[in-house]
Input
Amino acid sequence: MMEPITTDICIIGAGPVGLFAVFEAGLLKMRCHLIDALPQVGGQLSEIYPQKPIYDIPGYPTVNAQQLVDNLMEQIAPFHPTFSLGERVEQLHQLDDDSFIVITNDNTEVHCKAVVIAGGLGCFEPRKPAIDRLEEFEGKGVAYMVKNPETYRDKNVVLSGGGDSALDWTIFLADVASRVTLVHRGDTFRGAPDSAEKVFELANQGRIDLVLQSHITEIRGNGHLQEVLITGRNNEQSIIATEHLIPLYGLTPKLGPIAEWGLNLDSSAIEVDTFDYATNVPGIYAIGDINTYPGKLKLILCGFHEAALMAQSAFKYVYPQQKLSFKYTTVYGVTAF
Output
């Protein structure tokens, strides 16, 4: 077995919040090692919707998801974080001196003084609707996320769902695909009202087809998806010819081994103290979508705030004998170790 990697903080999850935590820790001269089950940094932003525009990052009227990840990597570069990508955390052991050993499925060992869980939704998989022959056409016209929008250039695309992802991708693909149809069981949407308004406007302009109070009950094709059968509220049926179906019903979170670490959980989320986003286990913090507390908002910018407060507390845990003297970055700039 290789020698353990030694660091101040082991961050589980290399999504945007985990990456920004490196920056906040770096300002306090703490070293970070990040572990992520995905083969690249960026979490859901890079894996699920790299070209999706994001509108609520301060200072950016709009920035696409992958550009945000790239900017974060540039921002933390002076602090020289290290990474174990494509590896899943399997074990956590607390030593007699209250430090931790984190072990991955590839037997990578990380010896750290604090652990930060920034795993987004944890290990996740898409929720699949009950549609006949759905899995038969996976990779043959059926996809549960949009990795490359150009795949749908000048194609007929059907999306289904009523949340933010369904709305956002309907809006985006309206300028890419030959024809976009959005199918939703209800007549109102769960997603952002502004996005829903844009979708209704696109439908009124004839730029997309909006099929409400309906659901897809069957898909058909010969080696590749060719059409979907839609059933309405009164059991009326219609057929739409399409080359692509994208069901967007969210993700099912799975904490995996983290659920066995003695942390206080609420459903599949980790309970934290909003003073510093610490868990009930000293030295372990949880930030981003994986945590929960009264008033929780699952927004990237909220995760950034959580990372900042976490780092201040983690410094005191990692270096209890040192005095924390934090200044604004405008005072002394960003310096490498």
